[in-house]
Amino acid sequence: IISLLGSTSAFHQTKPPSKGVTNLYAKRVYPQAGTPMEEIEYDTDVAPLEGYTGPSIRRTGDYDDQKFQSTQTDFLGYDEYFVADNRADLCIYLPNLAEARSNLKSQMVRSYCAKAGYNFLAADWYGRGDSSGKLMEATISRWVQDTITFLDRKASDITGGMCDSGKKKAVFVGSGVGGWVALRVAMERPDLVRGFIGLSVDPDFTEDLLWAHLPEEEKEAIMRDGFREISWGGRDHVYPITSSLIVDARKHLILRGGPNSIKVDFPIKIIHSLEDEEVPVTVPLQLIDVLDTNDIELIVPKVGGHELGDRTVMPGWIAPESEFTVTDPPFKTELENA
After folding, report:
1. Interatomic CA distance for residues 147 and 257, integer angstroms
2. What CA–CA distance (Å, rounded) separates 243 from 250?
3. What's the sign of the alpha-carbon dihedral 214, 218, 219, 225?
């Protein structure tokens, strides 16, 4: 995954850890692209080694089901693949509105990071999954700030720390709203971002794809009651849409500034299916127009839908050895297991 970000990235300056390193947890094997859905085990437990009482020195391996104290009263549930003494950048996966931090796409990113020896982080959004928080307080503003706090403080125990001159940054892999949040983080804290990979990104979706097309009675109900479960695009997914999410998101719209209105200084790749049921391909085209960079590429596979899969096999959009080259048929590229 990281090879697409250019040879100047710090990812290309660190070798994978020695095969002799002992993992803290039993080895977890993540599914490969092309694995039939019915053969994938979603809830594989990873047990600590016998006699483990807590490391004084963290070892390379999986650290799942952790809690990060984001404020005095709130926490984020997160998973991590940690590489001891790794001075390269790290990779953070930001999920979409409907998925938890552990899903097929995040597992494939993690699988590659484990294979190549890169630190990996993925957290549930505030108000979602294993994270604390009230649904009515789950907003773009909160998710952006939580992501910044998470990287500033959590990544401090990864060798080299974050942000300071000569130290590491993060490659963001954002799915759906995760892509929107990642770009807002980049606008507020460009020092954190090494590169961005967007998967079915949907910036401004609350206003352009949702609010603009809702019947007036639905709008009134959301504002009156504060909450409605909404589906769109003909998919089965139902999204919890709150009045606070709609109103707060208007402070974070990014597609309205005109050509080259958002300065970025990192490589970008966006992958968006022509068959996306929820987010038309015009959205990433608009995004490319407002981003002031030439180091950007849009890949548009014909099939795959919003989940970038054909519903019978795992998505094969991660092809690190060929820098996301999509073969015929698409979504079949093999990814090595960790």
Report:
1. 24
2. 11
3. negative
Amino acid making up residue 272:
H
Is 297 in contact with 289 (CB distance < 8 Å)? no
Tokens of residue 335, six digits = 């990814």
Helices (DSSP H) in the chain: which residue ranges? 104-116, 140-149, 177-188, 205, 216-225, 243-249, 282-290
Going by C-beta distance under 8 Å and a sequence separation of 6 or more, which residues neighbour residue 50?
none
The model's pTM is 0.78
d(CA 326, CA 68): 37
Looking at residue 233, its amino acid is G
Mean residue pLDDT across the chain: 77
Q: Are the C-beta atoms of residues 318 and 113 closer than 8 Å to each other?
A: no
> Encoding tokens for residue 106?
């995040």
Residue 263 CB-density burial (10 A; 0-12 exposed, 13-18 middle, 19+ buried): exposed
Tell me the backbone φ, ψ of residue 275, rounded to 5 degrees. -100, 15
Rounded to whole angstroms, how far apart are CA atoms 327 and 319? 10
Instruction: Kindly list the distances between the CA atom of residue 312 and the CA atoms of 62, 82, 257, in Å, as whole numbers in the listed order.
Output: 28, 31, 40
What token pair was written down for 59?
């070892």
Burial of 95 (0-12, 13-18, 19+ CB in 10 A): buried
57 C-beta neighbours (distance < 10 Å), count: 6
Average pLDDT over residues 257-272: 94
Helix (H, G, I), strand (E, B) or coil at 270: strand
DSSP, collapsed to helix, strand or coil, labels residue 86 as coil
Say yes or no to pLDDT of 254 above 90. yes
β-strands 193-199, 268-271 pairing? parallel
Is omega for the bond preceding 329 within 30 degrees of 0, making it cis?
yes
Q: At what angle do helices 177-188 and 140-149 cross, to 10 degrees?
A: 60
Question: In sequence order, what E strands does 156-238 have?
Answer: 170-175, 193-199, 227-230
Asked if residue 218 lies in contact with residue 230, where contact means CB atoms within 8 angstroms, the answer is: yes
Cα distance between residue 128 and residue 122, in whole Å: 13
Angle, vertex CA 151, rays to CA 291 and CA 173, nearest 5: 45
pLDDT-derived band at 164, boundaries 50, 70, 90: low
